[in-house]
Amino acid sequence: MDATSQAVGTATAGGPVVGGQAGPADPLVPYLSADFPWYGLDEGWSGRRFLLPSGFGGPRAGTHGTVDYGSLGHGEEPARQYEPRDVRKFAVVVTVARRESRRSADNTGTLEATSASSAAWLAGSGLLAATWPGQLDRARRQDWLDQQSTLAWDLADDLEGPGWSTLSLPVNGLPQPFRYRESEYGWVLAGEAPGVLLGAYGRGVSAYGAGFAAVPDLVAYTRP
Q1: Are 21 and 10 in contact (CB under 8 A)?
Q2: Res. 4 pLDDT band, cuts 50 70 90
Q3: pTM for the structure as a whole
Q4: Phi/psi at 47 (5° precision)
Q5: How far is CA 14 from the centre of its chain?
Q6: 3-state SS assignment for residue 81
Q7: Is the pLDDT of residue 119 over 80?
Q8: Any alpha helices (H) in the chain, and if so which ranges?
Q9: What are the DSSP calls for 164-201, one per residue?
Q10: Gap between the Cα atoms of 106 and 92, Å rounded
Q11: Range from 55-59, 102-106, 213-217 carrying the lowest mean pLDDT
Q12: DSSP single-letter state for residue 96
């Protein structure tokens, strides 16, 4: 961490400690409802940290109402929909809960178990959303996103294929293999961590120097 909270924290089941109490409009609320630990860049990252709001990579609940995945940002916030596509330097870490195959909420089907491919797909789609070519009009942008999303899905479904290479990065201080790929828009990687699956994507920040760690206190992600 680039800073350590001195506040008295409150613990959540399976999650990190956060200083102070979370109000009803607090962006920490959906993060604190997760039943798994959140991961971010480790203490080697000294730059800004930030929460991502729901809809832009923040915590997302599955069909049973429990949070299944979410992201933590580092550096400059990626451009959101309709914002200028200027070059921003960022790295986003996607934490995905390990879920076994299960019945859907309406009991009409079965949901697949989460896997490293799930993390790769979420990271790949996050990178696309943050880096689509800014000169495209709305209709062409959607066509481009559809095309690239299909490609990202196919790549995520074949992590052992030629579209990926292996990169060893530290997780909680121990080396861990990740599947890694670069494109003109940035980089994506996917792997595992204790209790969760990890994905990450970035632009202008080297993936080769990245390290990951469970976040003990989310307060560091709420500071300006």
Answers
A1: yes
A2: very low
A3: 0.81
A4: -85, -165
A5: 18
A6: coil
A7: yes
A8: 28-32, 116-131, 138-156
A9: -EEEEEEETTEEEEEEEEEETTEEEEEEEETTEEEEEE
A10: 32
A11: 102-106
A12: E
